[in-house]
Prior knowledge:
The protein starts with 24 loop residues before the first helix and ends in a 9-residue tail after the last helix. The protein has helices at residues 25-42, 47-59, 71-92, 94-99, 103-122, 132-153, 157-164, 166-188, 193-217. The longest helix has 25 residues, at 193-217. The protein is an all-alpha fold. Mean pLDDT is 89; it is low at 1-6.
Amino acid sequence: TVAGLRHKPLGQLWEILHAPLMQFWFLYVLFVVSVIAVLLRKMTVSTEMIFFLSMLLLASIFVDLNLGPWGVLYMVRIYSLYFVAGALCRKWGSLEALAQLKSTALLRGAIAAFGLLTLAVLLKVAAAPPLMVLWAGSGILGTLLLSMYLDRRQLFPFLRHWGQHSLEIYLAHTIFSATAAAAAYQLLGPNYLEVEVVVSAVAGMAGPLLLCRLCQRWQLMFLFRL
């Protein structure tokens, strides 16, 4: 996140405490939703009730409810539903139920879910607010089913390793991919964009994984935790 301030005075460094930069808005939203969920659970509010409240919060989009000047709260309104849905699925054992499906059912379900999402994009209705939960749910379900199928078939085992370290990749990839892209540009010039993209993508994956291994060895994994 600090890297996003490279073109700003150091005196503005404090802004990262409240103003997300680039894709790191996700961390701010995750923090706020996690804190609120924990507080509600401490107050003995059921997960089902929290899910209902998150649905009401999302529905407030249609009445243009003003949540104040902090932009993070508007993203919390949109994405808190999926966080609580995950907690609800865990409570109800939904993932365990999906894991009981036959391999063919997993694959067919994944194809159907991704097919529905593709159809929404082709019909240009993917961004329609009333249906966005359906499309998001289809993508999530399709990803879960496909992951279970690949794991059961022992296909592409490296994907499991990537998935286990997805948070570390997410947090650190910008540092490595941007550095690699800049170096490739300096060496090759502007006429090899395809090569620069590949180099950037490889560095964005390999760099964080190497960093994660070093942090595990040096017991510094707390750097990647909330």
